[in-house]
Design goal:
The protein has 252 residues and is mainly α. It has one domain (2-8, 18-151, 163-251). It has helices at 2-7, 17-43, 46-52, 56-68, 74-91, 97-122, 128-149, 162-199, 202-214, 222-251. Helix 7 (128-149) packs across helix 8 (162-199). The protein is globular, with a radius of gyration of 19 Å. The chain starts with a helix and ends with a helix. The mean pLDDT is 79.
Amino acid sequence: MFIALKIVRLPIRIRSKKYFWITLGVGVLVALHWWTFYQSIYLSTASLGILCLSTVTLHVTWLEPLLFRKPFSWVEFFMGLLVVVGIYIVSDDFKGNELIALAWGLTSAVCAALFSVFNAHLVHKIPSTAMSIHEMGVGFLFLSGVLFFQGKIDSHLFEMTTSDALWLLFLGIVCTCIAFIVTIEIMKKLGAFTVSLSINLEPVYTIILAVIILQEHTLLGYKFYLGASVILLVLVVNAIIKRNKSKTIISN
């Protein structure tokens, strides 16, 4: 990302000391989000990990009014609670590692909500490219520290096939760096709640891909799909409400 931004001459410096330190703090939240998210997947399935992120919108509804004094929306909060109902249905017959995976996944959602809310505020103060490079840099250093204290930084960490290396580059460049910058830029127009709502559509294609590529349908029971359906229904209804609300504002 650093090399690419230097080549295209996009801003990477944060001139304000105040926002510099806030951005570094948000970078730690991003790293915690990644770490807890992949812990959830490791202990369970990709489908469960991504489904937990559906609770991000619930956390955004109370975090924005709390941190930045935005009006509290009971409609958004109620929709968020319905998502929790879906999560409850999904986890009803969980036990052992699956419950631990659920806890990791929900922790990841809180971290995602926090950095989404802060980024939605910061994007109006500093360039999105500068935010991204600093947050990614802090994320790299933080996770490297975690691996170091876990004793996992050794030669075995870098042993991988060519296929693994190419997939990691694809995930790092396309699915992380580019997506991160674009998401922050979009927040200028749409806000944290709407962006997190769109991100919550990830369960749809993640579950489909997990079934096709990872054969996870053999690991998931009917309650998972029932709970997932509740969550996806909430997302659709919420999107319709937002769309109608936008039309009403425009017409007035």
